[in-house]
Specification:
Blueprint: H1 17-27, H2 32-37, H3 41-55, H4 61-74, H5 78-90, H6 95-103, H7 110-124, H8 131-139, H9 144-167
Length: 187
């Protein structure tokens, strides 16, 4: 398959360089996902912009990571599951929530599990959810806004997981302790 470059500040297209510089300043390194996306400055800018937008939703950091990791797992993105496990730990997401997400199991907290299941349904049904899916989400206190914000997180994960699949992005050293292997069959 065609090999894609993982760009550095020196090799990246001019329009990607400020974005990579911002990542390096924020994280202390340029994640390989960004280094690969840099080939298409519009992809890198779009991904970073949508990530910033998703962080501004009414969702808590735990809720955002539930949506992201659920999509990562369903999309079988080993890079993303590892990266978001590390990010989620840094955001204080409970270990039992992370283990449930990584293993495709139920989250013990009923409200968080309802969000998890709705994120799964949005992904699997390509947005064509049933009223019962919405009712289950609303029954635990989530809103129409929540349902729509799940779509923002899902769109964000399409951008990253598809990039990682196309590029076969190598896992950064910072995420290796949280490496994940996709199951042979999907739950």
């Amino acid at each position: 398959m065609t090999g894609f470059n993982l760009h550095t500040l020196e090799t990246a297209p001019i329009k990607s360089r400020p974005l990579l510089e911002g990542a390096k300043k924020a994280y202390g390194f340029i994640p390989n996902l960004y280094a690969g996306q840099a080939e298409a400055p519009s992809l890198l800018e779009g991904y970073l912009s949508l990530a910033t937008t998703f962080d501004k939703t009414a969702l808590t950091p735990t809720e955002r990571q539930i949506i992201l990791i659920a999509n990562n797992r369903l999309n079988r993105c080993t890079y993303c599951v590892a990266a978001h496990t590390t990010i989620a730990k840094g955001a204080g997401v409970a270990n039992e929530v992370l283990e449930a997400l990584r293993n495709g199991q139920k989250i013990a907290d009923p409200k968080l599990e309802a969000l998890h299941q709705f994120a799964v349904r949005i992904n699997q049904a390509r947005g064509w959810v049933d009223q019962k899916d919405l009712d289950a989400l609303f029954a635990v206190g989530y809103t129409k806004q929540t349902a729509l914000e799940v779509i923002v997180g899902t769109a964000l994960k399409v951008m990253s997981t598809y990039t990682n699949h196309l590029l076969d992005t190598p896992l950064d050293e910072a995420f290796k302790s949280d490496a994940w292997t996709a199951p042979v069959t999907q739950a």
